[in-house]
Design a protein that fits this description.
The structure holds 3 protein chains of 3 kinds. Chain B is of the alpha+beta class. In chain B, 33% of the residues lie in helices and 24% in strands. Chain B folds into 2 domains: 228 residues, no CATH class; 137 residues, no CATH class. Chain B contains 14 helices and 16 strands. Chain C is an alpha+beta fold. A 4-stranded antiparallel sheet of chain C has the order 1-8-3-6. The longest helix of chain C is centred in the last third of the chain and has 26 residues. Classes of the chains: A alpha/beta, B alpha+beta, C alpha+beta. Chains A and B meet through loops of A and strand 6, strand 7, strand 13, strand 15 and helix 11 of B.
Chain lengths: 271, 393, 153
């Protein structure tokens, strides 16, 4: 599969090590359709390719946004690109969050660190069709206040009366006067109906493991918990073998899994 | 000579001295003929333009970590089993350029690879390897996404299969239900027969194409005795299996035993050299490498065979998911024998024994399964129970 | 004054407690309120209370001379503040300060300690519940310690 040429429209710094890149197809008559939770393989000329989840609004088909953290060779090269530069894009790949299936339910979104990025498309969709859902809560945990993504949007969402937004940091710095503590501690602070709630979690695996446990303690069934997983990926289409976790290929069976369908393998050491 | 008309499933006789003609016909039909030949101190797969390039009169002697070439007392063409190569050498090349890219003023341009693939004729494909090829067919041609590179090499390949006349010390196709008799996926399947002064092949026709090609070669009808002889050879081979693997409930067995102490034991022996994955005819994992030339204006993407035994294989920023040898051996074996069944509806092991023969420390997949089965962990829930008690310790 | 017993009986922390034990607790309970910035408890001081937070937010802090107050965790409505009253030497291990106007029910730990010594069933019930609170705090602290969002090459 060949990468499709896209141009960078905007590259915006989010935090000291994260950034959002907005892309438009080089052939501008093309539109880009994706579902919340899917990812693309982004190719930086001569450097390499890396899977990055799509963080923009699925309703906006003329551009695609990705939020990435500069931690590897490709993401560091990506971070240095400017608007007008070209990228190769393959995708969208993978499964999506249960946005449709959640209609009529409470929705609890729990994000850790850069895990908010693949969940932002869900928030856009929930807000666009707010009436179809009952309670909506966003619980977001980061390392320090400097690590918060999408600060302006968080403020906007926090300002709404129909979404409960709770943010916590592991370590308070500066003049932070919000919550301190891990994101799992926020779960008991929101009221939702565990029997009619859908939980969508994305973050480091340790964070997701403890979050799942806390949701279970609150009475949420495994079939109502969804997680997004990360593995090494080379092809994005289930052929290269790298992203396996037990019998699943994270790239095509995931990255979003209903927890009861992955629980035998999730969190086990070195699987 | 009168040539009887032949059809699929017919069995006829091809004389040894007409084998060259078969190769000639394939070459005339523009096939790239490849098959077993002596090389690198073993029997490997390479170009075959002449019957003389086959390892005539040679055999192999295989056991855990051992492979020796030996002279036979006869001049058999196929009197050996499988060597270190498998057909993935041709169908899934170890390095393949996927595309190139050229930098220009406002970006770059991707230049697709226009591969001209000469159709292959595979000579001497064993039943285990037919199963292996069909496994990879399923992965690369029957899933949600099709691999065009595999497909272009595979789709017109001619397969001349061989029913094994002997089994070796590491063979266990009978356990895996993959041999020794070739049952599908071939154009022609031969059983080699050497009698006092007669040397011939009982040929089963698998496809119209096979019939057509055989029609261009000289052959004669097979009599009942010859057919019986051929059947007897295969039966005899089936009795010679050097290894046995009990596959009863193997998927659950391995899924339930992720924490079995045997994984620690095998980890002490395993060198994570990746030999087993390289010789395995079904192992299909690949990686990609993006490279540039010195000017930085020309880039290429290469696909290369990869192995789950490397640290890099499972690397995500910060570290490898499978850092320990134990976890990597477990991944390989559990994928092969258990996860594969969930993924592709079949086992990933065809019982060819290559991984046993070519393991430098003679790790034996059949022995590892046996060890886990004999000392199966009672129930994993007891383990998680223990973990629970320790959770807040 | 209205009895706090119905509220206590409904609280998840005390759910399932026997009526006579609830009565004892209610007898030791009083409503309290703290202004923003006001200390609720201070490291090293005698620990003779615990609090059921009804409204507001409290920061559990550790003071370091060169860094000032370090917030370890914040706790809010519905949660329990303070367990040092139950474990010798009955001294607060950290500071706790209201960072919003906070209303809470204070329970007299000194009184409860005596009651627990007299009635081990009550003591056991309370210990079980506090063990759970302490375990959750410990789990959260361990997660914090592991710095799950950091890059660890």
């Amino acid at each position: 599969m060949l990468p499709n040429p896209f141009h960078i429209q905007r590259l915006q710094k989010e935090t000291y090590d994260t950034f959002t890149v907005e892309l438009t197809p080089t052939n501008s008559t093309n539109t880009f359709l994706f579902s919340a939770g899917q990812f693309n393989m982004l190719y930086v000329f001569g450097v390499g390719e890396v899977p990055i989840s799509i963080s923009g609004d699925p309703a906006r088909t003329e551009t695609i946004k990705h939020t990435a953290r500069a931690v590897g060779t490709v993401t560091r090269a990506l971070q240095k690109l400017k608007s007008g530069d070209m990228l190769g894009v393959r995708g969208p790949f993978g499964s999506h969050w249960p946005v449709e299936e959640s209609v009529g339910n409470d929705v609890v979104i729990i994000a850790g660190g850069i895990g908010l990025s693949p969940l932002r498309p869900v928030l856009y969709q929930l807000i666009a069709q707010r009436k179809k859902y009952k309670k909506i809560a966003l619980l977001y945990g980061v390392r320090t206040p400097e690590d918060l993504l999408y600060k302006r949007e968080l403020e906007q969402w926090r300002g709404r009366f129909d979404i409960e937004v709770k943010i916590t940091v592991d370590t308070a710095t500066g003049d932070w006067c919000g919550d301190v503590g891990v994101v799992t501690t926020l779960i008991r602070r929101v009221q939702f109906d565990p029997l009619h709630a859908m939980a969508m979690i994305c973050g480091p695996e340790v964070m997701m493991r403890f979050t799942i446990k806390e949701l279970q303690n609150c009475g949420v069934g495994n079939e109502r918990i969804f997680i997004s997983m990360e593995r090494n990926m080379k092809c994005g289409i289930g052929l290269c073998g790298h992203c396996q976790c037990g019998p699943t290929f994270i790239c095509k069976d995931g990255p979003v899994f209903r927890y009861d369908r992955i629980k035998e393998f999730f969190g086990k050491r070195e699987i | 000579m009168i040539t009887p008309s032949i059809k699929v499933m017919d069995r006829v006789i091809l004389e040894r001295n007409h084998f060259q003609k078969l190769i000639d016909v394939l070459i005339t039909r523009d096939y790239r003929v490849v098959g077993p030949t002596l090389g690198e101190g073993a029997i490997v797969y390479d170009e075959l333009n002449s019957v003389d390039k086959l390892p005539i009169g040679w055999t192999d002697d295989q056991d855990g970590g051992t492979y020796r070439l030996k002279k036979r007392s006869d001049q058999a063409l196929f009197g050996y089993v499988v060597g270190p190569h498998s057909w993935k050498k041709f169908l899934l090349p170890s390095a393949l350029r996927l595309w190139q890219a050229k930098r220009h003023d406002n970006g770059f341009q991707i230049i697709p690879e226009n591969e001209e693939i000469q159709k292959f004729a595979f000579i001497g494909v064993r039943s285990c390897d037919i199963h292996a090829v069909s496994t990879q067919d399923k992965i690369f041609m029957n899933g949600q996404h099709i691999d065009p590179h595999y497909q272009s090499r595979r789709k017109d390949a001619f397969i001349l299969a061989v029913n094994c006349g002997k089994a070796d010390g590491t063979c266990f196709c009978v356990s895996m239900n993959t041999g020794p008799k070739v049952t599908f996926g071939f154009d022609l399947a031969v059983t080699e027969i050497l009698e006092d002064n007669n040397h011939y092949f009982v040929v089963e026709v698998g496809t119209e194409l096979g019939a057509e090609i055989l029609h261009e070669v000289t052959y004669r009808e097979a009599n009942g005795r010859e057919k019986k002889l051929a059947d007897g050879i295969i039966k005899n081979t089936a009795r010679q299996m050097g290894r046995v693997m009990d596959t009863t409930n193997i998927k659950d067995l391995l899924y339930k035993n992720y924490e079995h102490p045997r994984w620690d034991d095998v980890a002490k022996r395993c060198l994570t050299c990746a030999n087993c994955t390289m010789v395995c005819p079904t192992c299909f994992c690949t990686t990609v490498e993006d490279v540039t030339d010195l000017t930085g204006d020309h880039a290429e993407r290469w696909r290369k065979l990869d192995s789950c035994f490397t640290m890099d294989f499972s690397y995500i920023h910060g570290g490898s998911i499978r850092a320990s040898t134990k976890s990597r051996y477990r991944q390989w074996m559990t994928h092969k024998l258990a996860a594969w069944i969930d993924q592709f509806g079949m086992s990933g092991c065809v019982g060819c024994g290559r991984c046993i023969t070519w393991c430098p420390v003679a790790i034996d997949i059949t022995e590892e399964v046996r060890a886990i089965r004999e000392n199966e962990m009672i129930d994993t829930s007891t383990i998680s129970g223990k973990e629970k008690t320790n959770a807040i310790a | 004054m209205q009895s706090l017993e119905p509220y206590l009986a409904e609280h998840p922390f005390l759910k399932g407690l026997e009526p006579n034990h609830l009565k004892i607790l209610a007898g030791c309970a009083s409503n309290v309120q703290f202004d923003v910035g006001q200390f609720i408890l201070r490291e090293g001081e005698e620990a003779n209370n615990f609090y059921i937070i009804r409204h507001g937010k409290v920061a559990i802090e550790l003071f370091a001379a060169e860094r000032g107050a370090i917030t370890i965790q914040t706790i809010g409505a519905g949660e329990i503040l303070g367990w040092s009253w139950l474990i010798p030497p009955y001294q607060w291990r950290f500071d706790a300060r209201a960072i919003e106007i906070t209303r809470a029910i204070a329970l007299d730990g000194k009184c409860l300690r005596t009651k627990c010594e007299q009635d081990h069933n009550l003591g056991y019930e309370l210990l079980k519940r506090f063990a759970h609170v302490i375990a959750l705090r410990l789990e959260a602290t361990r997660l914090q310690l592991s710095d799950v969002y950091g890059v660890h090459p």
